[in-house]
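Open question from group meeting: does this chain pack into something compact, or does most of it stay loose? Before anyone orders reagents, we agreed to write out a predicted structure and look at it together. Recording both the input and the output here so the notebook holds the full record.
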Amino acid sequence: MKRETKNIIKDLKAGRNLGTNVRRYSEILSTAFTNYAAVKLSLNLFTLMEMIDELPSDRRAETNRMVATLRRTLTDGFSGKAITDEDIAEVIKIREAVTARMKILTAYTDACSIYEYVLDRKKPAEDPEAALDTAGIAENMYNYVFQENDKMLINSKIQTLIAELPVRMTKDRFFDIISNTLNIYRGGEKEAVNDFIEMIKTAAVLTLPEGFETEYPELFEIYDNLTKTDVKALDANGVNVLSGEIYRATEIINSYVTDQLMLIEIINDSLTVLFTINNIDKSLLNDKYDISVKIITETLAAEDIYKAAEGFDELFVSLEGIQEDAYETLATVESSLFDICDSYSEPIETEGLTEVFAKLNKADKLTSTSLFIDLDRDIRVVSDAADEIFISDVKVDFEEAMRKKLDSLSIPVRRAVMAKVLSVLPVFFNNKEEIREYFNYALDKCSDKSELATSVDKINEIILGE
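Structure tokens returned:
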């Protein structure tokens, strides 16, 4: 496949047989996608079925309904039956449901992290009379950040430390930082600006996703209790009780997230097959693909997955290393997809391949590292630029909503929200000295000994963890 693709690209660049070559490229890439996804499914599907078997009855029944759709569509596809747009739409609907649940679980995770920040800083210091060398701690932080020259690593370290530092800044300064960060997006895509604002809103739990109150009642009960508690009035026992509730919520969240991550991976691989299998060239596939399909179809058809798996050991041995090989082939062939779509749109349209290439682009997204990527969002050059007026309008709308949110919170929770937001922003300092000054200021201005001690402990854990 790799060699033939190379020859196709040469011919396309030379202007030879454009229609024939874009068609052949689509067949080769479709085959590479189907092959790679089938291999992954064969290696992971049993794990999903095993996980489902161990779920509580209510979660098992719902997940089995999703798997039933995958079973029908994949069985049809691998048996040679043409996959319809209706088949694909059914699986996309399942994917959207899983994505929606992950948004809810992410919101609960963010909410728990905010209240964990608050409660940790309410725990009494072990030695309330002990003096902390804040200047020395700030210097340690500075040295930790700049002990290496990797810019991305430096920025990551700064964000990690800011997440634990006491917040001692006015709301005006807080909004100035966000405003200055937004200015960076001037001239870029409006979608990028909206994504940035959405990231902040998510971190601050400013807007709650649909289903937040109903999808996971046990989590909402904990969240509702946290938001209604006067954290300033909590004694040590109250802090411990609420900390225990957050721990319980985290365990529940992790359990659900594990399910959703396994499901989305299987769904993405299934969709990759469904998007591309109608257009494959079977002559390019080998016996490893046939083995993968055998494992998939027998696992899906089995009434007893453990009995079915008894015959898989030798098959799995024969597939050792095949996923890496399949990915290498796919990566080589796929690397030309964007350029071909961009440069040869006319022959693609003339050959009636517009929909085929649209599905290839979706398959490309599904095999990326972003499990929950939006399949309908195009990656493109700037076409709808964010000008100064757009940026200004976004700032005004966001600040109004965020100020209302912050004003509704107690000071400890407000500071926790601000710390969370600051930790997800791109680094907002202009030079090294500003970073040193911020570290010193945040520590020096914190008069709450419990809060300061907790922050220092967490900062030391970060530094010593290296």
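Observations to bring back to the group:
Residues 2-104+257-366 form one domain.
The first helix runs from residue 2 to 13.
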